[in-house]
Amino acid sequence: MLDQLATTPPAELEEIIVPTSSRPSFVDGCGRTINYLRLSVTDRCDLRCRYCMPLRPTFLPKRDLLSLEELYRLARLFVVHGIEKIRITGGEPLVRKNLMHLLHRLGDLISPREEAGHLRDLTLTTNGTHLTQFAEELFACGIRRVNVSLDSLDATTFADLTRGGSLPVVSEGIDAALAAGLAVKINCVALKGVNVSPEEVDRLLRWCGEKGCDLTYIEVMPMGDIGNEKRLDQFYPLTELKGSIDKRWALKRSSYHSGGPARYWDCVETGRRIGFISPLTENFCDGCTRVRVTCTGMLYPCLGQESGSDLRDALRDHPDNDEPCSKVIAARVAKKTRGHAFVIDRDSGAALGRTMNTTGG
Ligand code: SAM
Ligand code: SF4
After folding, report:
1. Is 137 inside a domain boundary?
2. pLDDT (tens digit per residue) in 223-233
3. Mean pLDDT lowest among 3-17, 22-36, 116-130, 235-249
C-alpha cells in the first residue's frame, strides 16, 4: 500500500535517490542557502483551534496528499541538496496513519557528521494530544526536540479555544515527552482577551520554568478562512506583550538562533528561554533560510506569500528521476524574497487564502 512505507524503503527508491555530497544546495535570490525544511504530512487535525481553522473545515481529498513514500523521497531529495533540519508539521502530524514508518526512515538520514547530504536535526510540531502514545517512539526515531502548542493553562479556556481539547491530555503528553528524553518547547499564540493577561502569562512562564521547557509566543497570522472568528479581534501585538513581561521578569537578550523567525531572551528567574515570533509587528525575515512543503507537495519559500510550486506533479510524472523535481525546487527557491507582507484585511480578517493547517505551521 502506498501509505504504508515499509521500515526498509523499496530497493527502487534507494536507486532513485542516491545521496551525493556534490549536489548543489538550493540558494535563494538573496544568496541565502536553504538549510531548513518544514514538511507538512497532513491537513487533518483532532482539534479546531479558533485562530487556525473553522469549526467544520473541508479537508483535502486523501488522493491529493503526498503518500509516505513521496514525502520520504522529497525529504531525502532536500537532504542531498543541503537541508540539515526538517520539522514535521501539519495539521496534526501525529494523526497521520503510519507516520512512525516515515519518521524512522527520516531518522536514518540523521548524522552528526559535518558534511553535505546528511540531516542533523529532525523535529516535530504537535498539539500534544498523542504524545503519551508516541513520545518514546519519537525518541527512538532520532527526534530529540518537539514543539508543543499550548495556548492556555486554564482548562476551560483551553477547551474553548481548541474547541474541545483536553488540557490534562496535552499536559500528560508533555510529561511523557520529557520522560522519554525529548526537549519540549511550548508554542503559545497570543490572543487578545484570551491568554495575555499578566496572570495567564506569568502562570505559563512559571510552569515552563518548573517543567524545564522553553516558551515561544507567536503573533496570530492572517492565514485563511477561520469561519466566524475575526482576526482583528484575536490579534495582540507581541511588542506589547514583551513590554508587559519586561516589567515583571528579567529578560536578557539571547544569542540563540533556531534558524526560524523567533527572537529569544533568557528569563533570569526561570532559567529558560522565551522567544517571540512577531511577523506583523516586526520583520523577522532577514535570516530566514527555510522553506515549506505542504501535505499536497506545494513548495512555499515563504509562509507570507501566495506563490508556490507544485512538486507533486514533478514527483509523480517522473517516478525514476529526481532531476525535474530538483529543478522546480531550485527555480522556486531562487524567487524567495527577503521579506513577507502580511496585512490583516479589515473585512475578512485574512491575508492569505490558505489556512495554517494546510500550509503547515
Ligand atoms: N497541530 C500542530 C500544532 O498545533 O502544534 C502543528 C501544526 S500548527 C498549524 C503549527 C503552529 O502554528 C502551532 O503552534 C499553532 O499554534 C500555529 N498556528 C496555527 N494557526 C496560526 C495562525 N493563524 N497564526 C499564528 N500561529 C498559528
Ligand atoms: Fe490543529 Fe494545530 Fe491548527 Fe490547532 S493549530 S487546529 S492543533 S493544526
Report:
1. yes
2. 666 676 667 78
3. 3-17
Say what the pLDDT of residue 283 is. Answer: 59
At 3-20, the pLDDT tens digits run: 444 444 444 344 334 444
In a domain, 28, yes or no: no
Residue 332: inside a domain, yes or no?
yes
Name the more confident of 273 and 279: 273
Which ligand is closest in space to the CA of residue 161?
Answer: 2
Instruction: Give me the CATH number covering residue 55.
Output: 3.20.20.70
Q: Could you tell me if residue 334 is left (phi over 0), alpha (psi between -120 and 50 degrees) or otherwise beta?
A: alpha
Q: Which residue from 321, 324, 303 is spatially nearest to 311, judged by alpha carbons?
A: 324
Per the structure, the complete domain to which residue 69 belongs is given by 33-359
Alpha-carbon gap, residue 234 to 137, rounded angstroms: 36
Q: Ligand 1 pocket: which of 42, 43, 125 to mutate (most atoms <8 Å of CB)? A: 125
CA–centroid distance, 77 to ligand 1, in Å, is: 26
Whether 21 is in a domain gets the answer no
Beta bridge partners, 39, equal 88, 293
**Which atom of ligand 1 has the smallest separation from the CA of 221?**
24
Ligand 2: which of 48, 357, 359 to mutate, most ligand atoms within 8 Å of CB? 357
Does 218 sit in the ligand 1 pocket, CB within 6 Å? yes
How many domains are contained in the chain? 1
